[in-house]
Amino acid sequence: MSFLLPETGLLFWMLLAFGVVFFILYKYAFPAILSSIDERKKFIDDALKNAQEANEKLARIEQQGNALIKAAQEEQARILKEAVSTRDRLLKEAHEKALDESEKIMAETRRLVQQEKENAIREMRTQVAELSLSIAEKVLRKELSGDERQEAFTREMLDEAFEKENSAE
């Protein structure tokens, strides 16, 4: 007997045991293992398919989100531009209205100043005339205090009036 070569009986029983085990495995274990592997493969394929669909949906949602953000930014820019335009227009209108009001106020002030000036001049003329008359009256009273002086003054005034009449003709 050699250690390297098995005996025929041993070889026969080993082949028979291997065949029985192989038959049992082939009949009962392999179908269960293969169905489990097929289910696992199907589950993995389904998971990959779902993941791919989710990625596609996520990409579409991201594109839609970017489009919405872009639209919102454009709307924001439009609103800001419109607000700036409205602000500028309102400021211009307010400035023009303020200028018109200030011109009206200045014109009214000028008119009032001119009117006050004319009133003051009229009043001063009246006072000067009254003072002149008062002074003339006092001077005449003093000068014409006597009868002789009154007659001489009267003749002098008549002579001047005749001279003016004659020189005018």
Task: Give the helix/strand layout.
Layout (H helix, E strand, L loop, with lengths): L7 H136 L3 H22 L1
Question: Explain this structure to me?
Answer:
The chain has 169 residues and is an all-alpha fold. The chain has one domain. It is built from 2 helices and no strands. It has helices at residues 8-143, 147-168. The chain is rod-shaped, with a radius of gyration of 66 Å. The N and C termini lie far apart (191 Å). The mean pLDDT is 88.
Provide keyphrases for this structure.
rod-shaped; mainly alpha; 2 helices; 93% helix
- First CA to last CA: what distance? 191 Å
Mean pLDDT: 88
Q: Could you state the order of secondary-structure elements as H and E? A: HH
Number of domains: 1
Taken as a percent bin, the fraction of beta residues is under 5%
Continuous helix count: 2
Radius of gyration: 66 Å
Low-confidence stretches: none
Number-wise, the strands total: 0
Major β-sheet, in short?
none
- As a percent range, the share of helical residues equals over 70%
Shape: rod-shaped
**Structural class label:** mainly alpha
Summarize the structure.
The protein has helices spanning 8-143, 147-168. It has 2 helices and no strands. The chain has 169 residues and is mainly α.
